[in-house]
Design brief:
2 domains, 75% helix, mainly alpha
Amino acid sequence: MFLQLLTHQWKESARSAFWQNSIGFRILIGFSLLMLALYCVAIGLFMDVLLKMAFPNQDLLLLVSKGLLYYLTIDLILRFFLQKLPVLSIQPYLILPIKRARLFNFLVLKSVVNPFNLLPLLVFVPFSLKLIILSYPVSVVISWLVAVIALVLANNFIAFSIKKYIVVKPFLALSLIAFVGLFIYADYAHWINASNTFGTGLVRISNAPYWLIIPLLWARLCFSITKRLLRQNAYLDDLETRKNNTGTTTRFRFLQRYGIVGELMQLELNLHLRNKRTKSALIAMLPGILIIVYTYTSDQHGPFFLFGMTIFLSSILMSILGQMLFAQEASYFHLLMTLNIPFKSIFEAKYRLLVLANLISFILFSPILYFSYHYFFILLAGFFINSGINAHIMLYASLFNDDPIDMSRSTFFNYQGVNITQFLVMLPLIGIPTSIYLPFRLYGLQNMGIVAIGAIGLVGILLHKYSIQFLANQLKKRKHILTTAYK
């Protein structure tokens, strides 16, 4: 039965749309994957040299074992956001005389074959060989490698379960992700000493191979939990799709009380929540945000750099939603132009959506108050300047993006709607606040500069009706150009 299922999956993969791409594109992807694999092997081969240079008096095996906890934690987060769940359309098989347990076993085991499990092997297998060359006992190295592989596989099954639980119990899954992030910070801040404990424990397991039963049982337990989850939700791998396809039109029903503008906002929000484009863009920005927030705890960056960073954080969500406002509506733009909807209402809805995005960014990053009141007020000023000035610039720039976008496709390796306009429109997001702030800073009036940014933004918010009318007039001039481009 496993052989038949593998045959079906092989045929499905062989008929994938990927193989319909040009041979040059396939060669480029293949070359990129080959280079990535070679880089991983090189890291494994030279890891001992690099670690000796950085930590000359520490044991290599213990040092790598300590860092492995961070690797596994980051790996789990990346798997949650980037690893694609293996999909087996089990419905056609359910009417056949096949045990469901076999289908679930195949589905879970299929998840093992993915780059997140292959790349660690390309690093740790060469590293293990180097340890043997450096006179580490063979039994110890092999035991350590088996334990690492078991932990990596356990991560694979945990990520699988979390992504499934997001559908069934989203609060529980998101709480677990938040706990993982807090755990990393607690260890980094030396509130706990988890990495040392983990590293020491892993080395002890390696020195006493009979303790390998612990990581192996952990991997087996994670496998069983994942399989049990699938058994309890036999159609779970289609559940998320069904949820996205039904019932979403009633989201944000309260917006309908605000007339046509509210209904247009509801349409835009549903468009973003249903489709992959916005979701994958938000996912892609998360690691960057974590790095940016980390910079506030570092003494390596000056106040002016952190000013620009704070302004960027205040506009990050607006920049994702606002760059392609009309291009993302390409599939129904021609219908929108034929309806009896004033163009002012269209822009009013989009403007309010961008203001809402700025408000969410402000609330999301308001814990910056923990680091400094100064940066909190910069964040607040950024909210006003983005809502009063930059939002109008993004709305205007969207009129000149005539490249249609398929919102059902992910942003990864997808360059639809990407042109020079998208890069140019990003410049004012930081450039305008900086140009206002810089003269005040040169005269030592940083606080006045922040007030000036907020005041100019507030004026823009109060006068936004005039900008909306101007944008509506521009859409009248360009609607035929855009309608033709989006066909």
